[in-house]
Amino acid sequence: MTNNLTLALPVGTTLDRFINRQQEAFPYAKGELSQLLRDIALASKIINREINRAGLIDITGALGSSNIQGEAQQKLDMIANIRFIRALVNGGEVVGILSEEDDEIIQTGNYNAKYVVAMDPLDGSSNIDVNVSIGTIFSIYRRVSDIGSPAVEDDFLQGGRKQVAAGYILYGSSTIMVYTTGKGVNAFTYENSLGEYFLSHADIKMPEDGKIYSVNEAYFEEFTNPVKEFIQDMRKHSGCMARYIGSLVGDFHRNLLKGGIYMYPPTRKAKEGKLRLLYECYPLAFVIEQAGGLSSDGMQSLLDIVPESIHQRNIVYLGSKNQLTQLQKKLEKYHTFLMEQIKAGL
Fold first, then answer.
1. By C-alpha distance, which of 169, 260, 263 is closest to 215?
2. CA angle 185-91-40, nearest 5°?
3. Is the dihedral angle over the CA atoms 181, 215, 296, 235 positive or is it negative?
4. Phi/psi of residue 120, each to 5°?
5. Antiparallel, parallel or unpaired: β 185-191 and 196-201
6. What pLDDT was estimated at residue 59?
7. What binding details are noted for the cofactor (predicted)?
8. Residue numbering of the annotated binding site for Mg(2+)
9. What single-letter DSSP state applies at residue 208?
10. What would the mean pLDDT of 148-170 be, rounded to a whole number?
11. What span, in angstroms and rounded, lies between the C-alpha atoms of 296 and 226?
């Protein structure tokens, strides 16, 4: 059902005005969450500027170091990380930050702040050299630790259902900020000449059916049988198409608007999955479920997974209701078969 708030908004609504109006939906909020979303938007504007001039100054390519995940850090990874941390520290509404680029929780010194943020400051940054869309992913929680103290791991290990807001920024042919506070999903496109985000996609509803599947088929032989069967079914179905650019935010955003499914199944190198639960899986699952789609690890919603560590990886399936339901049935049937084999001692 269309959000009544969205229907009442005039054309040309800025992100700032939209945030102010939505604040009324949170009886416990006194403006802190609204300011936090503005801080994230501000940082994204700065990153947008850096990306747009990446070919003109020496900020592309590898940095020569690795993050906690063992992945080579790009120069833009660190630039984005610094920009977001600085914006969140100066904004004053965040006590702790969990970033893909840092081993430990970043303490902001704002010990009276009520929120913590988990983020992937620049997902897909290795694609910047070839001008492919990249993005930022973020997740916001109300802290559970005592006000006046530093942030602790428990602030971030609350589980996906405890997110108060989540979203992403896509830096592509245009820069778009998409987020939810649990009241539907809205997207805002950045207007460079005015320096403002404007509401461009109100109350997004993901199509229940889709013909796009996004998966790295180079690993096809390593996938489990139900995933292989699902992909083969998609290949045979008239009009279905594979679309995969290897930039999570770009692939996700396309499928969110057009309908489809994104998959990162287990492989030999990543038996537990590759994507990070707290700052990739949870926020995108929150967004897609708010838009009417589904998320899964093959057995349950990603939002229902109980986190065990702050940099935990997970298997990911995100998609339109019909596609994900079809895949889920295959995965459940396969799981039941395996359990029966184990019980029989085979």
1. 263
2. 30
3. positive
4. -110, 100
5. antiparallel
6. 44
7. Binds 2 magnesium ions per subunit.
8. 100, 120, 122-123, 280
9. S
10. 98
11. 14
Confidence of residue 57 (pLDDT cuts 50, 70, 90): very low
* pLDDT tens per residue across span 247-277: 999 999 999 999 999 999 999 999 999 999 9
The CA distance from 299 to 61, in Å, is: 38
Q: Is the pLDDT of residue 235 over 50?
A: yes
What confidence score (pLDDT) does residue 152 get?
98
| Cα separations in angstroms, 159 against 154, 299, 302 | 10, 16, 9
pLDDT at residue 62 greater than cutoff 60: no
The pair of three-digit structure tokens given for residue 192, joined into one six-digit string: 């460079």
Residue with tokens 């079809």: 326
Reference 22, options 167, 191, 157; nearest CA is 167
Q: Give the percent of the chain with pLDDT over 90.
A: 73
**What domains, with CATH codes, occur in the chain?**
10-201 (3.30.540.10), 212-343 (3.40.190.80)
Q: Extract the annotated binding site for substrate.
A: 123-126, 216, 244, 274
The residues facing 198 across adjacent strands are 14, 189
Distance between CA atoms of 311 and 275, rounded to whole angstroms?
Answer: 10
Binding residues: 100, 120, 122-126, 216, 244, 274, 280
Q: Where are the beta strands (DSSP E) in 148-219?
A: 165-171, 175-180, 185-191, 196-201, 212-214
Q: Which backbone phi and psi does 42 adopt, to 5 degrees?
A: -60, -45
Nearest to 213 by CA among 331, 318, 134, 330: 318
* Placement of tokens 């790009």 in the chain: 74
Question: Please, is 94 exposed, middle or buried when counting C-beta atoms within 10 Å of its C-beta (0-12, 13-18, 19+)?
Answer: buried
Per-residue model confidence as pLDDT tens digits over 132-146: 889 999 999 999 999
- Strands 134-142, 196-201: pairing kind: unpaired
Hey, what are 270's tokens?
């990543």
Does residue 116 have a pLDDT over 70? yes
Q: Hunting for tokens 């489809």 — which residue is that?
A: 260
Predicted local confidence at residue 54, as pLDDT: 59
